[in-house]
Fold this sequence. Notes:
heterodimer; A: mainly alpha; Arc Repressor Mutant, subunit A; 2 domains; 9 helices; 59% helix; B: mainly alpha; two-stranded antiparallel sheet
Amino acid sequence: MIMAEPVSHKAAKPPEPAPGDNPPPLPEESDLVKRARRGDLAAYDDLVKRYQERIYATVYHMTSNHEDANDLAQEAFIKAFHALKSFKGGSSFYTWVYRIAVNKTINFLKQRKNKTQMSLDDLDFNVEHDPDLVALISDKTPRREVGLTELQEKLNAALQRLSEPHRLVVTLHDVQGLSHEEIAKIMDCNIGTVRSRLFYARQQLQAYLSDYLK
Amino acid sequence: MSQDTENFESLQRLLTLKRHEQPPPGYFDSFSRDVILRIKAGDRGEDAYGYFWQLPWLQRIWSALEARPVIAGGFGLAACSLLVLGVVNADTDRMDVQPVAAAPQAVATIQVANNFASDQPLLARPAAMEISESSPIATVAKDGQPSIFDLVPRPQAQTISLNLSPAGSP
Lengths: 214, 170
């Protein structure tokens, strides 16, 4: 009910090839990891390309700052490359890199405390046609007068008021569409903790954004 | 409950706005290249504040202090108490040591007389030097072993007759 899995997984899905195209098969992740571990930078380049958007997005949603997200996401991949020898393969490379990026971001945010300055990315052209947002804005509420850019600023400001673990759970689940299990692996906690944090974070956000959710 | 669910649905709808936030066009075209270039340049991707901050136990303590001001206050009080206790103890130790150092039996007095000085009325008074037992010089002197200063040739006083009368006078 409240903890229902998100319907949409848009952010987590790779782009689908156009019909009729026959792209070459992607190499297995484990092969790329093995080659990268031997120092093959071309293989690591493939791995980075595979996950760069998701890692960047997670860090960006946590920081609400493009420049910080750029630095942190790059540093996470660099750190992961140098730590590949310690990667046991118990989890997927994707989960492992995610964990590095998340830890790095949380450490950064703790250092940056009270020095929050937002540098938001632009909204893409599809935003005005998103059915969820159309439904939200076309309701009979004060939201109608609020522009999308202002709504974006309010939403980011509200997210920044959450503690880092709560913001992370909302980002990974409600924005990026990861499952509770995946989030538990990334955050190295149990699923119950993920669920309770998500519930609390949503309650907090709802209070902060009450003017826009009536 | 149903109202809560509905509101969460509204919230989730609003959160879809975040998915439309995109970095500048072409940003990801150079992302992996930049990462590889930084790896080739020897970048380790470490935080500026190093490993120390990443220690899990330190982070747990920090989180606890941050979350509860009472604990943070108690921790601060304990740290200050330890500091004050340390300072008071240090002063007490110093006061205990001072009388021992000043004890008369701990000091050996050595009379150092210079042969050269003994012949000179103005320098007739011998130089006296007090050296504590802890001094290496005192230890050597007490043991009767020669000091390295004994190896230095001492100046010998010589009597010289000088005639300072002007030339030509008897």
